[in-house]
Amino acid sequence: LGVDRLVEVLDEARMLPSAPTLTQLFVAYVNPNMKQEALRLAEKLRLEGLRVEVDLMGRRLDRQLKYADAKGIPYVLIVGPEELKQGMYKLRDMKSRSESLVGLQDLIQILKSPSPNPK
């Protein structure tokens, strides 16, 4: 059991003190084939000055969403093959649980606005 995994387990069990997250967006992927696309997208968003996390552990989508929720990350961008074909991404507001399809430039605008709120 590695230190990262131990911290994650303790955090999920709410045994660690919580601090507000600085992460604006968690990039999740629907299957392992989408991992490289998620990493590429996260890098693009970081170059735009956004604070982005992406799963490196190969967890299933539901576990990625639970992680983002437990960390208090306000938005999750879901990368899947259908979304890539459309050139759009599914943006989930973790507070309201609402989802919308957004393009990359719209996503950047949403996250850079003073009070992000997807359309």
Mean pLDDT: 89
- Total helical segments: 5
Gross morphology is globular
Query: Which runs of at least 5 residues are low in confidence (pLDDT < 50)?
Result: none
- How is the quaternary structure best described? single chain
SSE order and pairing:
Blueprint lengths: L2 H10 L12 E5 L5 H13 L4 E3 L6 H11 L3 E5 L1 H6 L2 E5 L5 E4 L1 H9 L7
Parallel strand pairs: 1-2, 1-3
Antiparallel strand pairs: 3-4, 4-5
Description:
- There is one protein chain.
- The chain is α/β, with parallel strands linked by helices and 119 residues long.
- The chain has 5 helices and 5 strands; from the N terminus they run H-E-H-E-H-E-H-E-E-H.
- A hairpin with a 5-residue loop joins strand 4 and strand 5.
- The protein is globular and about 40 Å long.
- The termini are far apart.
- 24% of the residues are buried.
- The mean pLDDT is 89.
Quick summary of this structure?
The protein has 119 residues and is of the alpha/beta class.
Comma- or semicolon-separated keywords:
119 residues, alpha/beta, five-stranded mixed beta sheet, 5 helices, 41% helix
